[in-house]
Amino acid sequence: MKSMSSSRRSPLAMAVLALVGEAPMHAYRMQQLIKERHKDEVVNVAQRNSVYQTIDRLLRDGLLKIRETAREENRPERTVYELTDSGRDTLLQWMRTMLSTPSREFPEFPAALAFLPVLGPSDAREALEQRLVALEAKLSALETNLREGSKFLPRLFQIEDEYQREVLKAELAYVRGLVSDLRDEEITWPKGLVP
Length: 195
What we know:
This protein is mainly α. It is built from seven helices and three strands; from the N terminus they run αβααββαααα.
C-alpha cells in the first residue's frame, strides 16, 4: 500500500474518494452522481473510462477496496467499492492541501494568450469576440443553475458554482477590455510579425 504522499492527487481521484466515502458504490453510480450533481463542471469525466482507470489506481494504492461484486437481474456484474482508512486519511489531506495551497495549473486560455501574435490583430479580436459570446452564455446558464439550485440545495453544495461564476465574471471583464484594446489598436503587432 502506498502512503498518502505517494498517491497521485487529481480532482477525479478526490471525487471518487469523496463519493465512496458517502456510501459504498459501483463505478457507474459514481459517474451518475458526478453528472447529476453537476460536478462534471469541475471534474473531467468526459472519457467514461477515466473513472475506471482512477478506481484501478486507487485500488492499487490501497485507498479503495472491493466490498462486493454483485449481479442484479439482467444487468452486468458490478463491483462495489468502499473507502479504506488510508483512503479517508488521504482524502482529508488532499482536501486540506487543495483548499489551502494554490497550485500551478495549465489551462488552455492563458497559453493561447501567450502565443496571441500567431494570429493577426483582426483574427485575434474575432476569436476573442466569439469567446465573449460563449462566456456570456456559460455565465447565464450558471446563474440559472444557482438560482434553481438555491430552491432545494443548501449553499454549501453550490459554492463551486459561486466560485466559477466569479471567475467567469472576471474573465468576461478582462476579455471585454482586451477586445476593446484590440479594436482601438492599443495593442499592436510589430511590423513584420503580422501573419
